[in-house]
């Protein structure tokens, strides 16, 4: 689903992310962890060709599309529909004057998805939201509900992969768990590929199959999450783990 080789992203000649290898298969969750400024978000955005002003080298294949050489039309076709981007604060991305149902209906029409009412009901159920939420405006729902709605929108549009950038860091701890549970179920039961960027190792340990640890733009360690988190090979990973409360 996602296949990256020798990715190198630089701004004005300064390399900010170098990722030799990153693969995410359907049904798999891979997490990129590391402190602020380590290049996690840049890596995620490069997968959708969204690093404006950057020089991007290497090979990036996402949903069968060669991102580095894709045309704007090819990129539009994968963004938002086949591959969804879930950000930290979904409320900011939702139009404040539209009820959530209207917003989802419009998105489905725009992407040519038929049978909208059934698709919407099914997507809302998949993220464990009450269907009544579709009658509400973005400011009338909690951060956790808005995040699950953003994921429902991705499901309704037929997403095969979700790229999530700190999807729970703006949420309360109890609500974080709900969002993580939804993402885990979508991976396990619907075979979605999930690439999760997070600085929260506790969260990562509950969901990720594999982990990449980034520091100052470089991948310092990668491997199965259980191994990396239990027996970190790199001092930096050990530091991150020791910083856990
Ligand atoms: N548009 C840009 N122009 C110039 N430099 C940028 C740009 N975007 C990111 N960078 C630089 O790239 C480096 C990596 O940033 P990135 O946002 O990928 O880190 P991150 O690990 O996701 O951090 P955070 O957790 O704070 O989001 C930083 O030094 C940042 O200043």
UniProtKB/TrEMBL annotation:
Superkingdom of origin: Bacteria
Looking up SUPFAM superfamilies in the UniProt record yields:
P-loop containing nucleoside triphosphate hydrolases
**Membrane topology note:** Peripheral membrane protein
For this UniProt record, the keywords arranged alphabetically read as follows: ATP-binding, Cell membrane, Membrane, Nucleotide-binding, Transport
Which InterPro entries does this entry report, sorted A to Z?
Answer: AAA+_ATPase, ABC_Ni/Peptide_Import, ABC_transporter-like_ATP-bd, ABC_transporter-like_CS, P-loop_NTPase
A single GO molecular function term of this UniProt record: ATP binding
One Pfam family named in its UniProt record: ABC_tran
Q: Which subcellular locations apply to this protein? A: Cell membrane
Q: Which residues form the ABC transporter domain?
A: 2-241
- What's the family? Belongs to the ABC transporter superfamily.
Q: What is this protein called?
A: ABC transporter ATP-binding protein
Originating species: Nonomuraea ferruginea
Highest classification ranks of the organism: Bacteria, Bacillati, Actinomycetota, Actinomycetes, Streptosporangiales
């Amino acid at each position: 689903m996602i296949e990256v080789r020798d990715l190198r992203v630089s701004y004005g000649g300064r390399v900010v992310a170098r990722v030799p290898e990153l693969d995410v298969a359907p049904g798999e969750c891979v997490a990129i962890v590391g402190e602020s400024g380590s290049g996690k978000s840049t890596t995620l955005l490069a997968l959708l060709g969204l690093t404006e002003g950057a020089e991007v080298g290497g090979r990036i294949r996402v949903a069968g599309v060669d991102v580095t050489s894709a045309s704007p039309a090819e990129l539009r076709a994968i963004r938002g529909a086949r591959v969804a981007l879930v950000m930290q604060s979904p409320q900011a991305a939702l139009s404040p004057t539209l009820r959530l149902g209207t917003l989802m209906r419009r998105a489905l029409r725009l992407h040519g998805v038929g049978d909208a009412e059934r698709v919407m009901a099914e997507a809302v159920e998949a993220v464990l939201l009450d269907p009544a939420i579709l009658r509400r405006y973005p400011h009338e729902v909690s951060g956790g509900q808005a995040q699950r709605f953003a994921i429902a929108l991705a499901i309704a549009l037929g997403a095969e992969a979700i790229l999530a950038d700190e999807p729970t860091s703006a949420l309360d701890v109890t609500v974080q768990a709900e969002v993580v549970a939804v993402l885990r179920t979508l991976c396990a039961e619907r075979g979605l590929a999930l690439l999760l960027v997070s600085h929260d190792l506790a969260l990562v340990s509950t969901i990720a199959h594999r982990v990449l640890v980034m520091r100052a733009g470089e991948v310092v360690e990668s491997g199965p999450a259980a191994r990396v988190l239990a027996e970190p090979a790199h001092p930096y990973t050990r530091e991150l783990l020791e910083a856990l409360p």
